[in-house]
Request: fold
Amino acid sequence: AQKITQTQPGMFVQEKEAVTLDCTYDTSDPSYGLFWYKQPSSGEMIFLIYQGSYDQQNATEGRYSLNFQKARKSANLVISASQLGDSAMYFCAMRENTGNQFYFGTGTSLTVIP
Amino acid sequence: SQTIHQWPATLVQPVGSPLSLECTVEGTSNPNLYWYRQAAGRGLQLLFYSVGIGQISSEVPQNLSASRPQDRQFILSSKKLLLSDSGFYLCAWSAGMGEEPFFGPGTRLTVL
Reply:
């Protein structure tokens, strides 16, 4: 079974609007971490935000916030006030505490329209 | 501060030729090291990871191999490249359990 599922291969958002990128995960480990990365066309992977499975509050980093719904096993990324520079691939990832591996989803391509 | 280097940045190789991609990390000791491959338009596939010198775990059976001759050096190799080996190869490090991976700039490999 897929550890990380991103069901939106491509998304479009109007500049200055908010957008939600979906991510669901599968694990039986009670302790895990969830991550979001941005990959612009240059190829580099940029770490955006982290959510621990025991964190009580949703993580926020500037315009990025993570809508963590543990019972649903979802960790959606919300980008507020989209900017043209937000156009990129976005990857959701998970690390289980039982191992050293990080599992990545297939990514969502976000295009911000002026 | 920590930095991670990969080289070469781009590489074009014929089918059947050998491969050696190098990754080095500065500013940290005993990092966990990872090699990922990203095929065009797809997600990241974990190829190898290492928790210490000489310790390599392979995730996907293939014609690639990895080695960690020094604490902060991670090498991806192949004796004979296949067309399917084309892709974007990313090296990453993490400080250990519970820490996010930081990625290098990547190597874009084209096998012709």
